[in-house]
Write a structure and sequence with these properties.
47% of the residues lie in helices and 13% in strands. By secondary structure, it is α/β, with parallel strands linked by helices. It is globular, with a radius of gyration of 24 Å. The structure holds S-adenosylmethionine (SAM). The site of S-adenosylmethionine has 19 residues, from helix 15 and strand 6. It is an enzyme of class 2 (transferase). One of its GO terms (molecular function) is methyltransferase activity.
Length: 467
């Protein structure tokens, strides 16, 4: 959505003396700025901070949509915006007042991606600068943004920035270089079709549709209530094209919930896995905040007891709320690597491991700039420890589903394949359990993709204890 500024109102076109000009701040832009500031100064998560600010400030629907577009769009495009700004600011960007840098990004995003008329984008950002930083900084913001506007839109700026193939791809798709490399690697390494890689990265950057899961109600009833359509892969999924899912009575009651269709398939993987012998005890080893545990509780056969665990006490509490009203469930705050249960206690174990989240960037716009390649090795160590414990927790003949919301090879295939080298573990092919989902096989494991499946890039491996 691109819209002209609503304020400062009727006098907008008139020339005024800067000293006497009293801007009325634009609620949408101020809210978007506050999100950027929260992300950069307090490491806030945009997907948590923005809804909170929208609620507190009671913005109307139009302003709320514009604030969302500005905040998320600016965060996603940060790498490209910074590459442009670095050409126009004489100091290194890191030496700027962080508030000024955020304001420059917000203005530049409107100019290059939304094509807001330059006077509107520049004037509103200068007003915002005066209000949140002071008049001193407004001259710099004004001058730099005028140069951004003079350089044209995104495609003109990309041509100006130049760079080699991968650098250009990173800028064009709003990803850091190392994530471009990781996605290529996951899609097939050097034999990856460049057009598919670009499509995948663009899909990873696009705002996702909202997916619902019908947990304790028929899916058709949820589709009718929400005005959405049945999802193509999960028998429980409904895809929404708009609207606020939080207002739906079924979501409020817990009969349905918001859950990416890929996450639903990850839960279903555990439920569908072939098992020999008893099927009575399921474990969700990293359950917070309880999305997959909620689905497992709903789809388990009668008589199955579900234990849901999270190391973080507050996340375990969220699981408790997600499972409220369910019988035969137990929620524990515990470290999955030092389990309070006996070895071999469970028939099925879901390990939805903590990971870089590189497959869910579309819903967490700032994460791509916060993560670095250095985050990967400690996560791999944690994932490996948790998988070892998951395999110890499952009985002989039982199954472990290892899942990440990342396609990065080190935390997916490498972790699962290392475990599969043990002489008491066998790999079960994932694609066989999802014949209705094309293009899911990643060797014997499974991989969903935003550009193929319209889901997060979830990785899934299925391992069976053989002795
Ligand atoms: C990817 S999230 C799980 C998402 C969840 N399965 C869902 O669908 O809502 C990973 C979770 O693992 C938890 N975690 C991290 N280290 C852990 C550990 N050593 N033991 C148990 N849980 C852990 C984190 O607190 C986080 O809630």
């Amino acid at each position: 959505m691109t819209r002209p500024p609503r304020r400062p109102g009727p006098k907008q076109g008139r020339r005024r003396h800067p000293a006497t000009r009293r801007p009325v701040l634009d609620g949408a832009r101020l809210t978007a700025y506050d999100v950027l500031d929260g992300v950069s100064s307090r490491e806030a998560y945009a997907n948590l901070l923005l809804p909170q600010l929208l609620r507190e400030r009671d913005l109307d629907e139009r302003d709320a949509a514009f604030a969302t577009q500005l905040a998320y769009g600016t965060l996603r495009a940060q790498g490209t915006l910074d590459a442009i700004l670095a050409r126009l600011v004489s100091r290194p960007l890191a030496e700027l007042d962080p508030r000024v840098l955020d304001l420059l990004r917000l203005g530049a995003y409107q100019l290059i991606d939304l094509r807001v008329p330059s006077h509107a984008a520049v004037d509103t950002t200068v007003d915002l600068t005066r209000a949140v930083v002071g008049t001193g900084a407004s001259g710099l913001v004004n001058a730099v943004l005028r140069k951004v506007a003079a350089g044209g839109d995104r495609s003109q700026w990309l041509a100006t920035l130049g760079g080699d193939g991968d650098e250009r791809l990173a800028l064009a798709t709003n990803h850091p270089r190392w994530i471009v490399d990781a996605w290529r690697d996951a899609l097939g390494g050097s034999s990856t079709d460049p057009a598919e890689l670009e499509q995948a990265l663009l899909a990873d950057d696009a705002a996702p549709e909202v997916h619902l899961v019908a947990r304790r109600m028929p899916r058709d009833a949820l589709a009718e209530e929400s005005g959405g359509e049945p999802g193509p892969w999960s028998p429980y999924a409904v895809r929404l094209h708009g609207g606020d899912p939080g207002r739906l009575p079924s979501v409020r009651s817990g009969a349905a919930a918001v859950q990416d269709e890929g996450s639903q398939l990850a839960g279903l993987l555990l439920a569908r896995a072939p098992l020999q012998g008893r099927d009575e005890a399921w474990l969700d080893m990293c359950a917070g905040p309880g999305g997959k545990a909620g689905l497992l509780a709903a789809v388990r056969p009668g008589g199955v007891r579900l234990t849901a665990v999270d190391r973080a006490r507050h996340r375990a509490e969220l699981v408790r709320s997600a499972l409220a009203g369910e019988a035969d469930v137990e929620v524990l705050a515990a470290d999955g690597r030092r389990p309070p249960w006996q070895p071999g206690s469970f028939d099925r174990v879901l390990l939805d491991a903590p990971c870089t989240g590189l497959g869910a960037l579309r819903r967490r716009p700032e994460v791509r700039w916060r993560r670095t390649p250095d985050d990967v090795p400690p996560l791999v160590e944690l994932q490996t420890g948790l998988l070892t414990s998951a395999l110890a927790s499952v009985r002989v003949g039982g199954v472990v589903a290892y899942v990440t919301c990342s396609p990065h090879a080190a935390e997916t295939v490498a972790v699962a394949d290392a475990a599969a080298e043990r002489d008491d573990v066998e790999v079960l092919p994932v694609a066989r359990l999802f014949p209705e989902v094309p293009g899911i096989a990643r060797g014997d494991h499974g991989q969903l993709w935003p550009h193929r499946h319209g889901t997060d890039a979830m990785f899934m491996a299925l391992l069976r204890r053989t002795r």
